[in-house]
Design a protein that fits this description.
By secondary structure, the chain is an alpha/beta fold. It is built from 9 helices and 14 strands. A hairpin with a 2-residue loop joins β1 and β2. α7 packs parallel to α8.
Length: 267
Amino acid sequence: MKPTSDHPVVIFENNRTKAARQVMLEEEPLSIRVQGKPYSVVMRTPGDEIAHVAGFCLGEGVIDSRDDIKQMGFCDGDDTNTVTVTLTPARLQKTEHVLERRGFISQTSCGICGKEIIDDLSQAVAPLKQGGRIGAVTAVDCIKNLKRHQPLRDETMASHAAAVYDGNAKMLSVAEDVGRHNALDKAIGKTLLADGLQAAAFVVLSSRVSFEMVQKTARARIPIILAVSRPTALAVRLASQLNMTVACRPKKSGLIVYCGRGRIRGK
């Protein structure tokens, strides 16, 4: 299925109406199965399904690395909305408790208070090492340039994007989706499947930074999150506890760093 489709619309302008057609972003369910059993269903923009599921499984704690995947592919051919993941026997032994919870924190967070979320995630995800630093100017440039890699947004004005960069500000992957979480899963999944996560230094998001976005980035062991929009207070508290850096670009100029100041150079 294509990520966009053409739809008839009626435009009201200057006391007149006219018929037109407009490109719109598609949204379809993706069923994720682990060990032959239903695990989760997410709404997403069609495309990059294998990378999406790989990034999702990493973020959820189903896997820790690409080596934990024995097999992954579509059910009944490429033109389906179901991807199945088979884990190695060693990983399956380690992850039974995660599979029983069916979706880790991001799927069970309704009704859980912020302190419980931070405590739970801090037990499941170790704080990140300090790692390298990036310049503030470089950070701003990467945030500003994200829109150059959003063809679906140019067509529809309805998609989010996420990109993964290495320490030299070289883009390792980029992805778009109707869902901000999905875009990040896809970008991380692409990097994971290309064996590039060890080189990943920061991510750039088109959206606000929520605790789920911090969780997914932390699971990928990427220490810096840069975003177009501002973070939530819970996201900053969680990122601080996990020794991560969160920064965004205000509307006028500059860079706002909410935590992890040591990873941002002045220039």
